[in-house]
Amino acid sequence: MGASLPPKEANLFKLIVKSHETKQYKKGLKAADAILKKFPDHGETLSMKGLTLNCMDRKTEAYELVRLGVKNDVKSHVCWHVYGLLYRSDREYREAIKCYRNALRIDPDNIEILRDLSLLQAQMRDLTGFVDTRQQLLHLKPNHRMNWIGFAVAHHLNSNGAKAVEILEAFEGTLEDDYPPDNERYEHGEMLLYKISLLEESGFLERALEELYKKEPKIVDKLTYKEQEVSLLVKLGRLEEGANIYKALLTMNPDNYRYYEGLQKCFGLYSENGKYSSDEVDRLDALYKSLSQQYTWSSAVKRIPLDFLQGDKFREATFNYIKPFLTKGVPSLFSDLSPLYDHLGKADILEQLILGLEHSIRATSRYPDRTEKEPPSTLLWILFFLAQHYDREGQYDVALSKINEAIEHTPTVIDLYTVKSRILKHAGDLVAAASFADEARCMDLADRYINSESVKRMLQADQYYCTVHKPFPLLKVALAEKTAVLFTKDGDQHNNLHDMQCMWYELASGESYFRQGDLGQALKKFLAVEKHYADITEDQFDFHSYCLRKMTLRAYVEMLKFQDRLHSHAYFHKAAAGAIRCYLKLFDSPLNSLAEKEDTSKTPSQKKKMKKQRKAERAKKEAEEKNEESSSSGISRSGKRHVKPADPDPLGEKLLKTEYPLSEATKYLKLLLKNSPDSLETHLLSFEVNMRKQKILLAFQAVKQLQRLDAENPDSHRCLIKFFHKLGSMPAPLTAAEKLVWSVLEAERPSISQLQEKTLSEANKVFLGKHEESLMHIVAVAEMLYTLEHTKKLEAVKLIEDSCNKVMPMNGALGRVLEWKLKDCIAVHILLEKVLIDQDAALRWKVRCAEYFPYSTYFEGSRSSAVQNLLNNQDSKAAVNGGASHPEISQGANSFISNGKLEAFKSLTISR
């Protein structure tokens, strides 16, 4: 480095390198300028100056200088290495690898370049190259422990565990008998545990167990030692020894569910699906009774039997389990027991038990089997549990009466208000749910969880504001954002939510903006989540050298496996699906037509309000950015500016101006197809995107995947009928490629069982015959009936409306229906209004659903907060009486209300 310079300048060059390593960038620049003053074309100095400028956020100058340095000295490994470092800082890893390889052609034994190359190969999962590079490093420096370990890990990642074991054993052969010293005992123990896990993974179980016993004195982590031992013993079939070790582990941690699961396996009493024979249940019951006598303080040993016990034994065990929790007042009791609702008959037993306890406490203030009195709070927690129980069962009236009684009993318990908010959300009253969530938040302003719950409810409530109060939905989002930033740092509050990777908020607000039709803001939120996942992927880079140095090898390999499946996470799936839907909507209704549609659907006063609101939002964003820039414009001692880049597109307007929305959608669709191939939604989106792109074979591939995953799903049926209907309406193929596509489709059609020897209409009727008791299946058939023949619109509408006669109330509870769900009924209303375009049928459906869902704000049910406020608010009554804004409502409105004819009044307001 700098060898071609005179001694004085060579020393200055070394100073540049040292200044870069110690982050004294100004000092390094000064030394570089001194050299360039005498040797303006010195390539290595130009490159190092560029690298220094890059660290000071002067990227344009940095790239110019580094490229000039490479041009002036193309045979210098330093210039190529610096060029690679520059690309690496910008996450251009493939380009950086090319630069490193060019550097190695010039200096093939440079350890620094080889180490940097190996890190990039691990990051990019170039595992073959990673093995070669780590092998070269080991040959160059065999006395360095990290090179041995890195070579072993490289072979492990490359699916060669046996070779990795050989390398680790060869490394151990180089060590002395008294190794390790005290300061390296933990790291050496971790390496030994890693080697034993490799032996287990490779199938050498006996050898792994022998090695474990042999190296026990050198393994510091005794808990992991025991877990590794019992894992090997169980796999070897030595179940009695394994059971003894699991009991020892339970003595250390009697609430670890994995230990109980392992103990059951040792006794041959474990089932993946949770189903057991009567004999197995008796044996399990006896096992847990003996364990409960040994671990009396463990809650897990009492909770686990509830999953397999039945009948009277279940009743008795549950009775004994829940009593202490109700006495102590544990709010999470219902969450703990909620999995039992998936077991046939257990929900009814739970209900009978809690109702019996409620009756006993009300009558005697005691439990049925006790003589001492319970504290008054016991009744409160019984009511709390019952409210959640009836909410789960869909009996919202009873749930609300229980939670209201609990609030009257003790109005200062915050959990009561959050549960009431949840019940109202499930019942469909999103406005009231947001109100009670905010009331709970105000009772404890220091609780972040309750604050987050309140924000969620506010964002969900926009659905009501979108459908009823169209000028105002964005105000609700602004209020939610204002509430969310209460727990961020002062100053850069909105960006702080992004920096904190607060994905649940970005997803919720993105969905809210999407419902409102603000595609720019929605896309901005969804793509922000996608960026978080890109950042998480990049964050693994620092661990490639750290984990090898600290010997956290098992955790490192697990982290890499996690990173490989990172994009299959639910949050990424939601964000990618949301972005695809935005781009589909943008393709179907381009920006200009969206603006025209928005303008024609609003009155002049509404347009004025929206314009004013958007202007205020833009001004606020600009003011925030200016404040951030002024408050963070300082320069550190190293010369690096701490300026946060201003958001060039605060409202997402540039995102809407993309020329090819389907190309953007395809980018995220490919990620979903790769990482979530078993999700129905993935292939539904694939069908929609590829049909619009006229990619017939890809669309058909999506149809086949839908049939594979769930052929009886209503959406799968829709896609199947739509595809072949579209195919039938296309012109005859002309080119050789088109003829080839048609021949493939003709050959594949007989393989679809639903269409064998049937027309599309016949297949639609057969599908209806299979699913006559399901609302959404009936609706799918009706929609396809209209799609196949527009003349059968009335028949399709009648098919949907006739499904009302098949709905059966359960337990006499209004709103507790056999087959209807609120979200499904909302989807049906949208279908009648927007697809079938029958406003009268949509109105009839809305009135009908208001009876079944009386708390729904969407359907304006009689018990929803919207209607109640209208009836109770004096200002609203005055407006109705005056009739200045809506004379068609004021006419006869008083008589409707006074005579109790609420449905007629609702019909009148809906038609408005």
Q: How would you characterize the overall build of this protein?
A:
The chain has 912 residues and is an all-alpha fold. The protein has a domain at 7-183: Serine Threonine Protein Phosphatase 5, Tetratricopeptide repeat (Alpha Horseshoe), CATH 1.25.40.10. 72% of the residues lie in helices and 0% in strands. It is built from 52 helices and no strands. The radius of gyration is 34 Å and the shape is globular. Mean pLDDT is 86; it is low at 467-472, 629-643, 808-818 and 874-912.
| CATH topology label of the domain at 7-183 | Serine Threonine Protein Phosphatase 5, Tetratricopeptide repeat
Give the low-pLDDT segments: 467-472, 629-643, 808-818, 874-912
- Assembly type: single chain
**N/C terminus separation:** 81 Å
- In the CATH scheme, the class of the domain at 7-183 would be Mainly Alpha
Structural category is: mainly alpha
The CATH architecture term of the domain at 7-183 is Alpha Horseshoe
Q: What is the number of beta strands?
A: 0
Radius of gyration of CA atoms, rounded to a whole number: 34 Å
The CATH superfamily of the domain at 7-183 appears as Tetratricopeptide repeat domain
| Mean of all residue-level pLDDT scores | 86
Contiguous helical run count: 52
Q: Helicity level, as a percent range?
A: over 70%
Estimate the strand proportion: under 5%
- Form type: globular
